[in-house]
Automatic annotation (TrEMBL):
The keyword Nucleotide-binding applies. One of its GO terms (molecular function) is glutamate-tRNA ligase activity. Belongs to the class-I aminoacyl-tRNA synthetase family. Residues 2-271 form the Glutamyl/glutaminyl-tRNA synthetase class Ib catalytic domain. Keywords: Aminoacyl-tRNA synthetase, ATP-binding, Ligase, Metal-binding, Nucleotide-binding, Protein biosynthesis, Zinc. Transmembrane segments: none annotated. It comes from Sphingobium baderi LL03. The lineage of its organism: Bacteria, Pseudomonadati, Pseudomonadota, Alphaproteobacteria, Sphingomonadales. GO terms for biological process: glutamyl-tRNA aminoacylation. GO terms for cellular component: cytosol. This is Glutamyl-tRNA synthetase.
Length: 295
């Protein structure tokens, strides 16, 4: 068994991250497997080296210990490029020149914008462009993302399933879930401002790191349907998935990477005992006012 924790260095970690990392580590250790750490730093505008150092410090303080070297996505751009090229050769990607405003305008104009689990999906304007129009706009240097034609991709991949293991980990048998990627629409695989998207880099890296069991938040449940299709198209193995509830604060709102007494660094500064905190998190005892987000 290989599990992993994969934070984006856009801020310091809060106790929800610490809880998730501990669960992933414990799951691997209980099975005599390995636990890996990956820093998801392809978003150059939002990732900061000081947050990487802060995340490492927060995890070490809490007693989270990973096996092997830390994997940095910013060092794997060549792999993402190669996968994009393969998908492009398969005719499954198209350049998208739309700005956020273009997409918003289209949503506003259409009475019934199709909605996926993540909200309104891309309305598909650039899917309709001709090859010559695409070539002309690329040659003119127009900024563009690359989207996957999901209907075509799903048809090519054929029917797929993935395994959802129960939360808490180890609690009973898994469920076999039919992949339903169409609901997500034509998601972006390479962003205008980054050489890959989360969907592509995460899927490729889990495979490259030999991850067999992905433990992550419920907020990424919908993403798993998309990842399953990418795995099938690129001939990658499919890990099993545990999606855990997220933590909410006193206001009922999901914890975010912002400063506050729930940050691991803040708790440390307040003199919290990390061994006790780790024990509490493992037992599902959260600081006053923090609870599992209701589904
Ligand atoms: N980097 C993602 C985040 O910080 C998590 C990715 C994953 O676990 O698949 O939300």
């Amino acid at each position: 068994m290989v599990t992993r924790f994969a934070p984006s260095p856009t801020g310091r970690l809060h106790i929800g991250h610490g809880w998730s990392a501990l669960m992933a580590m414990d799951m691997a250790r209980a099975a005599g497997g390995a636990f890996r750490l990956r820093i998801e730093d392809i978003d150059a505008a939002r990732s900061r080296p000081e947050h990487v150092a802060g995340i490492v410090e927060d995890l070490q303080w809490l007693g989270v210990a990973w096996d092997g070297e830390i994997v940095f996505q910013s060092e794997r751009l060549g792999q993402y490029d190669a996968a994009l090229e393969r998908l492009r050769q398969m005719g499954l990607l198209y350049p998208c020149f739309c700005t956020r405003a273009d997409i918003q305008a289209q949503w506003t104009a259409s009475a019934s914008a199709p909605h996926g689990p993540e909200g309104a999906v891309y309305p598909g304007m650039c899917r309709a462009l001709t090859e010559s129009e695409r070539a002309r706009r690329i040659a003119a240097g127009e900024p563009h993302a690359w989207r996957i034609d999901m209907a075509m991709a799903a048809a090519k991949a054929g029917p797929l399933r993935w395994t959802a293991l129960p939360f808490p980990p180890g609690d009973g048998p898994g469920r076999d879930i039919p992949a339903e990627p169409l609901a997500a629409g034509d998601v972006v695989l390479a962003r205008k401002d980054a050489p890959a998207s989360y969907h592509l880099s995460c899927t490729l890296d889990d495979a490259a790191m030999g991850v067999t069991h992905v433990l992550r938040g419920d907020d990424l449940f919908a993403a798993t349907h998309v990842h399953r299709v990418i795995q099938a198209l690129l001939g990658l193995p499919a890990p099993a998935y545990v999606h855990h509830p997220l933590l909410a604060g006193t206001d009922g709102k999901r914890l975010a990477k912002r400063s506050g007494s729930i940050g691991l660094a803040d708790l440390r500064a307040e003199g919290a005992d990390p061994a006790q905190l780790a024990g509490d998190l493992r037992a599902g005892r959260f600081p006053v006012g923090i609870s599992l987000e209701r589904a």
